[in-house]
Amino acid sequence: MSPLRQRMIEDMQIRNFSPHTRHQYVTYVAAFAKHFGKSPDQIGLEEIRSYQLFLLQDKGVCPATLNVAVSALRFLYGVTLKQDWDIQMIPYAKKPKKLPVVLSQEEALRLLQVVRDMKYRTVLMATYAAGLRVSEVTQLKVTDIDSGRMCIRVEQGKGRKDRYVMLSAKLLHHLRLYWRIYKPQDWLFEGRQNGHLPISTVQTVCKKARIEAGIKKEVTPHTLRHSFATHLLEAGTDIRTIQFLLGHRSLNSTMIYTHVAQKIHKTRSPLDLLPDVQDRNS
User: pLDDT digit string (tens) for 255-281?
Assistant: First the structure.
């Protein structure tokens, strides 16, 4: 390992970056250095700019992926290398504003019903019932389920934050049935080799369930989280409560669900208030 890479890793450890973030940053910086065939401390702004264009035009990466690379380079040059130029000169790409895909309650039910394996069905139920990220649901521990207080502890979610979410009575019933069969000891949803269930497994299960349920929308585990928030909003739950349950740092992240809630679709168009328009050609 080069001294520069080691120092960058140490800088991230000091700032308590998650292992996932550290791995991503090192991977992107390594690819950047390999592209030019020299150490990053010998690469300047013009070459960084040309690399961004290479990622966009030649590799065809999306803005979100480009921005991870930008974050890695900003950290490298701003923190580890302490360059005297402003890291703001490495610009982020503006991401398009997209509304989340949301299932209707009937579609959510169909999706859950077609999953025959109890473990996988319970995983998807927990994701929807508590609005969990797939990384959070796969890393739940048996001790995170508090049936006395009817809540679930989410330990070190996104942003390295702990939070509590509600424990659905129906989910608790299915968790108890699941426990009698699988008897998990540490991780609630165990995978192979004594680890937790892999994220990729849940993603595959969700994709197969979507097809079997005949749902035309693109559905991922995160769609269940979007649906959780939207269905709560439609039921009259306060937006601040939803923000807390989702673990959003900013209310702006939660406000997006106001654009997809059924309350908008139930609002009558002014056209519906007019008398029927008569076709002059009929």
Answer: 988 888 866 666 777 877 788 766 666
